[in-house]
Specification:
Layout: H1 2-6, H2 10-26, E1 31-33, E2 39-41, H3 42-61, H4 73-89, H5 96-119, H6 123-150, H7 173-193, H8 198-218, H9 221-242, H10 250-274, H11 277-288, H12 290-297, H13 319-336, H14 347-350, H15 366-397, H16 407-426, H17 437-457
Helix pairs in contact: 2-3, 2-6, 4-5, 4-15, 5-17, 6-8, 7-8, 7-9, 7-16, 8-10, 9-16, 12-13, 13-15, 15-16, 15-17, 16-17
Pfam families: Wzy_C (PF04932)
Transmembrane segments: 16-35, 41-60, 72-94, 100-120, 132-154, 174-195, 202-219, 225-244, 256-275, 366-388, 408-426, 432-452
Membrane topology: Multi-pass membrane protein
Length: 471
């Protein structure tokens, strides 16, 4: 009995993996506040247990089978190089404490990402993972609906009691909106790319409609007006290649249009019925003021060196000036680091010393965050592998290019492709993405799909073991 507890079997580790990804998506909601700076979340507990179990298995077996991860070996190698480079950059970081904290987050998120291609080695594993993630996502959306009606916020939320905003399990509305735009391609395409029971399709449709209502309630410009339409455009381009032309009949297209129109009517009706006048007006003003937002960003010169003695508030608030000055300060400190990066998380420590006045410290731009914190080398490698991942997903989308790909994996490829391309814009919404688990999970799912697709091309039987009848 003791040996069974000390030596976790593969099934036990897989179950712990499923628990971990569920808690990862819930973020800081489920946990215990130990200190002002540290929250012992269930995700961190599950992560530590899973890591410990893998170390024990590695020590006892004197090795670990990872040959099936060969298709994504360059991603694993890059992540290792990234962490090592981050450790080296601590030697020139101005705030060692912030650097170590950021490095810990980076290490955890890298391992979270790689846990998907490691544990998702069959279609059954992939399907279970997606079902769990959908269940958690549905819970997040349902609470978001409740929150929008009663204005009751969870402890992690920065919103005050009664404040007309929706954050669900996240700290702010932009994080919630980005999570929705990452998940929505999976929800939307599941309705016609997977062979599901009618009741399951109805459930998915309801959650999809509710997620659009919650997204509208967040008032996130970048996600509502740019990220989601970009992801939808990718789906429109990819689907004719991924679906049998026999299914693209006018009847089926008409059903799809009807479902979209019905969903739009339901979302509008819910916003009128449930959102307060303050919340509706706030969302309407924010979305309509998008043009003015960009006009505000053009106020003042886009000069890195020129100093500003005062913070210029725009007509649409502090946000446009903040985002502009955060970009300029980031580039300024990147130049001063000789393009090697300021060190993990150290842009936050340097930001008050920048030439431009700001009221925030986080860059609010994931792409700039990588560039400024880690320099040009890491940024170029990250983006090169990101585009390569998109290309590999695209190759799995087409029926002609990859006839060996199963419908389930093809669905995953289409959805991951749309989600990751949409994130080009969605990545500028959260204050920081270093511990934004939905993004890292999306990356991990894409890597898992690439492995499954590559193995299916080679005719590996183990990939389809336990395949569900989902397509």
């Amino acid at each position: 009995m003791v040996n069974e507890l000390l030596v976790p079997r593969q099934k036990r580790l897989e179950h712990l993996f499923y628990v971990m990804i569920a808690f990862a998506l819930l973020g800081p909601t489920l946990g215990i506040q130990v200190t002002e700076e540290f929250n012992l979340t269930f995700f961190r507990v599950a992560f530590a247990l899973l890591t410990g179990g893998l170390i024990i298995r590695l020590a006892l077996n004197k090795g670990m089978e990872t040959s099936y991860m060969y298709p994504v070996r360059w991603y694993a190698a890059f992540f290792l190089f990234w962490v090592v480079y981050a450790m080296l950059s601590l030697t020139w970081a101005v705030d060692l404490g912030k650097g170590i904290r950021y490095l810990v987050f980076l290490g955890m998120m890298v391992l979270l990402t790689l846990s998907f291609p490691f544990f998702v080695r069959t279609e059954k594993n992939y399907w279970i993972s997606q079902r769990i993630l959908f269940g958690v996502f549905a819970s997040i959306i349902c609470f978001g609906v409740i929150e929008s009606i009663f204005m009751i916020h969870l402890p992690p939320s920065r919103a005050e009691t009664g404040q007309a905003t929706v954050t669900s399990v996240f700290t702010n509305q932009n994080d919630l909106a980005t999570c929705i735009t990452l998940a929505f391609p999976f929800v939307a395409t599941a309705l016609f790319m997977l062979k599901l029971k009618r009741k399951h399709k109805l459930l998915i449709y309801v959650i999809g409609v509710l997620s659009m209502y919650v997204l509208l309630a967040t008032g996130s410009r970048s996600n509502t007006l740019f990220a989601l339409p970009l992801a939808a455009l990718v789906l429109l381009i990819a689907l004719p290649f991924a679906i049998d032309r026999k299914k693209l009949t006018w009847k089926n297209i008409g059903k799809g249009i009807a479902a979209i129109l019905a969903g739009a009517v339901i979302v509008q009706a819910m916003s009128v019925a449930f959102l307060s006048d303050e919340a509706r007006e706030k969302t309407r003003t924010k979305l309509r003021g998008t043009v003015d937002f960009f006009k505000d960003m053009q106020q003042g010169p886009w000069s890195v060196e020129e100093r500003e003695e005062e913070f210029i508030r725009g007509a649409t608030g502090e946000s446009p000036t903040n985002r502009k000055n955060l970009i300029l300060n980031g580039i300024y400190f990147l130049q001063k680091s000789h393009y090697m990066g300021v060190g993990p998380g150290n842009i936050e420590a340097l930001m008050p010393e920048g030439p431009k006045k700001v009221t925030k410290r986080n860059l609010h731009n994931w792409w700039l965050e990588i560039l400024v914190n880690f320099g040009v080398i890491i940024f170029v490698l990250y983006m090169a592998l990101y585009f390569w991942l998109l290309w590999r997903l695209w190759k799995l989308v087409g029926l002609k290019n990859s006839p060996e790909t199963s419908p389930l994996v093809r669905w995953g490829a289409v959805s991951s492709l749309a989600a990751l391309i949409g994130y080009f814009v969605g990545g500028v919404a959260p204050s920081t993405a270093i511990h934004f688990t939905p993004m890292w999970i999306s990356y991990g799912l894409a890597l898992a799909v690439v492995i499954l697709g590559e193995l299916q091309k080679k005719g590996s039987q183990s990939v389809t073991d336990g395949r569900k009848s989902t397509a």
